[in-house]
Structure of DNA topoisomerase:
Amino acid sequence: MNNIYSTIGRGPGFTSIWDLKGKVLVIAEKPKAARKIAEALSQRYFVRNINDVTYFEIRDGPRQIIVASSVGHLYGLTTQEEGYPVYTYQWVPLYVVEKKKAHSYNYLEALRKLCTTSNYFVNACDYDIEGSVIGYLIIKFNGDPGRAYRAKFSSLTLSELREAFRRLTQLDYEMIEAGLCRHELDWLWGINVSRAIMRTVESFSKKKIILSAGRVQTPTLKYVSDIEKERNLFIPIPVYSVVPTIVKDGVKITLELINSPIRTKKDAYALAERIRREGFLTVESYVEHTTSVAPPPPFNLGDLQEEAARIYGYSPSKTQSIAEQLYLDALISYPRTNSQKLPSGLDFKSLLTKISQISNYSALVSDLLKETKGYLKPVEGDKEDPAHPAIYPTGVRPVKLSSEQWAVYDLIVRRFLAAFAGNAIIYRSTAKFALPGENIVFQATGQGIEDLGWYKYYPFHKPSVKVLPRFRNGERVEVVEVSVKTAYTRPPQRISKIGMLRWMESVEIGTEATRATIIEKLFERKYLVNTSRGVAVTDLGLGIVETLEIFFPELVKVELTRHFEKLMNDIKKGVVKREQVITEARNTLDMLIKKFNEKKETVGQILSSRLGIYTPPNKCAICNREEFSNGLCTYHYKANEQINKVYEEWKEREGVSFKEYLERIKKLKSTGKWVIEVIEHFYGGK
DNA sequence: GCAAGGTC
């Protein structure tokens, strides 16, 4: 019997799986992908079990195809050596090196047994460098790379999978080498620098404290640390505004001064007085317009994490683990994706029909089908992902979800529905007012919803309604009140975990699968702590950044990732060999570690003092940090400079004495911590 | 024990 899929689409340089004789073992990256592959290869496959692990068997005459799966990486790098620098490492099964990896034992054992009886091997993991490494290491340690092939597909649709298995290539050694190299580089930098800083603390203070540094975590820490320092050194500056209240049709409206020319308090009061004397303003323009707001694209993981944070206050890692659970329950598609596009082959009509069976959504889906008249074309975003589409509901009916699982599931369903809905029409009006004879403009705005559009399905962005009466150009409006408002410039806000994740995305470090975990790791190390207003950096976190900036500046910068990427590309192109790259990295590290070791004592002292386990003899008069200059640490020294510098602004704007200035800024909420500490220390009074 | 990467 000839398989119905076996005869079409072969080409030169390619091998069809159907031409391989004997037993062929196909290795997928994850269980769900294995099932899809089995479905694509045959309409009749047997479901089998080994070591509690499911795999699939296809029999077709003399052919036997086994489709089994990995669960991500089954091997990891490790070393037997202690201390640093360390440059020798081996690949070993993950369950050996990492605790809590027992499940990976079962999968590896199953693959090992299947490998021993197979004649050919196909690496059918995701088509990226990690997938190339995952499949390669399994075949290398349990099978035979000389009898192995690579299947290349970028989506799990049946037609693409069938095509991929008719066009197998040799193992993709360029990708494998690039992937192995990425692992080794991250390991070399991460393990060596982590050990270096841990060991200095240990030899200085005899305390074993876990510290770490890495290509992704350290630049992220540096980013938050910059915000922390700016906030702690911040001194607000007063800015003034004049706020007239007018009356129109019996309604009081307060106006906003735009393009304020006011610099000093005196100016502000003079302008207020001038308006009071005038008693009215003239309408300079009145404009009404509508804008059309398109639905947001379907969710990728970052967008989902952002919305769950904004609407429910969930941390990115919480949202991610909820989404993973929903995926394992088959309620949603694969969540670790960057794509904002739905799969083109998806039957939207039948999926919506399935969703309409879920009582919460019956009415919404019925409205959507009416509104679209069955024309179902979703909006999509620009972001793409080579391996997965955007997150969408599968139509499987949820049972027994917790309230938090429901919340995330609901966001995903509604965002999916909204993608098919029409634009929302928002109505806005703006009135501008002038003071006769002056180049000064005040403004009032109104806003309303003319057509709900997609907000009906995804109401979490719905704009608020603000009524503004109609004005005529040239109309004189009576001013009933004028006040002078003093506001203060604001420091950068404390960042949130989702803000950190968004930043990591924007500079392209980490991946969908790892960003949330790496953020949590910074908290675990006590480099960061949560406050009610967002993430704060601890003294230890600041100290780690300072130290690494001096001794391992590469590791603090986002550019190290760009550099690695370039090296990976060169390896893929065959311009450079993995061994060369590793030798170079080793030489760089060797040199940096030598310089670091010369200052081991100092670094150990600095980090120990930041850990609060040591008080330096020349310490800052205010805190426990080492002295930098004039009896102060760098931070309090800078705060003192800042106090003197910003006083010039205050003197001009408020006309206050230095003493008054200090009293005023001490009371302001956004004045930085280090500034307050300096004021209390030098200028007295708690 | 230390990284970042996959997935359960």
